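Quality-control log, excerpt.
Job 1 of 2 completed; input and output follow.
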Amino acid sequence: MKKLSTGILIGFMGLFGTVEASGLRYHPNHLFVKMKQGESLIQSPLIKSSKKLFGNLYLVKTTSADQLAGDLNESGSVEYVQKDYFAGKAMMPKHEILDEAGLLVKRLQNFDFSSSFNDPEAGKLWAFNSKAGLDVSGAYDSLPSTEVKEIIVAVVDTGVDHNHEDLKDIMWSNEKEILGNGIDDDNNGYIDDIHGLNTLVRDAQGRATMNTMASHWHGTHVAGTIAATQNNGVGIAGVANNVKIMAIRTVPDNADELDSDIVEAFLYAANNGAKVINCSFGKKVNEGGMVVRDTINQISKKGVIVVASAGNDSSGPFSWHNNDVDRKFPASFDSENLLVIASTASNGGLSSFSNIGPSTVDVGSPGSNIYSTINGNRYSMASGTSMAAPNASGVVAMVMGYYPNLKNMTIKKVLMDSVTIIPEFKGKIVTGGRLNLKAALSKAATKKRSTRN
């Protein structure tokens, strides 16, 4: 087992990365077209092919996105036309030395957060404690007596190292697909999608392919925080004990993801059983388009909660970036099934880099100095709202698993109503508090009883 520490993720993953100086960039041959109710897709010699995404929304391949957009905008049968924008390129993170002294201080402060697990590195998971974390250990000491349901969590990111010693046993597998036979066995539109999907590499027909192995460590780090195998005597423990990780490789190593890839990733996840989608990425400019928001709304019908990081643009405590004023996407969409996460530190307060939003950022979750899995059976420490989101996704999955009869919006309300209130969060985030797994499970039990009456 190798160890490596990775530096703070501020500015990484296109986490709301800057647009290139040359202006907004978009795919020259893609166009989203949403027709008005009852209208069919307009015919045009500029359209090479089209794919119906859902409802009246299409992704069109064209010889000229600019020309076709101009033509369609003049039609009274079109609700909206949106170009397929890139997120913007971003710098890769740097490595730093693991703060062993800081971890020792936390242990001396009686941050008891590893007693429930025999994983040798569990003592580095400060997010598990009750004083400043999610009270994961407290939750496991008093779990409901009912059997927990398995929840699929889609990690839409840079891919996941599914051979990692702490992840190989918790990877989702498409049991209806036969690996390596070159056939779409389950007729879901994809060939050999065993662990998920890769929208960055496409076959001759333009279909996303199946190699979901991590290209960068970021997605592997996210996956480990959510659900690294517990009590296996190796590495760390994830927050959730009932999760299978669906790997969807959609974010390039330079963080320049396309809107169309995000839409496809979300739809694939929901259509193949994922109930939680972890979204540790985003961008500063939405270009006025609603296609990703419409997709998030659409998958809510399948009971999905999308967990999104709020962004890392602050310099607290003197200068907080307010998402209510300067929006980030997808975090700032108004979708009811979107849970937006700020980052907290081991002192219990907000991480200095975390964005806030009194109306748009829902809850806090540990995101500073988070120790987790990275590629090649290694482990690292990293910071960012990218790390806060997967801690939250683990909590969401646990509540879903123990109380599967609760609807997604009820679960979101349970999570927000059961936070640990932090006075300094008042006026900065919607709930004024940090997620608490033990309290959320208790609140969900009360909600379950009330729905029976």
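Job 2 of 2 completed; input and output follow.
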Amino acid sequence: MHKMHPGFSFLQLVIVIAIMAIVGLVVVPNVSKRVPLAQRKEFHESLNALARQAWTRALQTGHVHKILFNLKERTVKLEEQVIAMDRDGKPVFAPVPLSFFAKHYQWQEHLEIKQFYVEGVDEVGKNNPDNTMEDIWFFIVPEGMAQEVIINLLDNRDTHYSLDGQEVSLVLNPFRVQFQMYEEFKNPETV
């Protein structure tokens, strides 16, 4: 008579471990490829939310709004033109308190802005060969339109197609004030 012992046999354990290893080999690379894409989509959606907020506020208040990118700190924030002018007669902008953004939005380090076209001029490359520029902005006017903007960025974490990273372009529709995302760099001639 053989006594039955509860538990798994060695063969059963080996089979379960082999199945888990196979599943891990298939699932982990697919998940790791999706993380950079999800972070790019988060950046895209956050910019669109900020642009929509600026568009709405510009229509309501009748004031020009500025979406300000700080390249050094990797932040984006919304500012509104106030009535006052500075000593040079230039308009003064003040930060807009937003309910869904703390003070600003900070994008991931692996998203590197390579070109930033505003009205056809690359503000990153313009007279700036060493890329030391910090602030770039574009305006949304009270009539509900924005300047033409193209942001080309490189996702250094997504090296699936290129060792340098995935090229991404965000193109602002000046009439709808919404960004469209493309998987290749764009410039004013190709849009």
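Post-run check on job 2. The longest strand covers residues 75-85.
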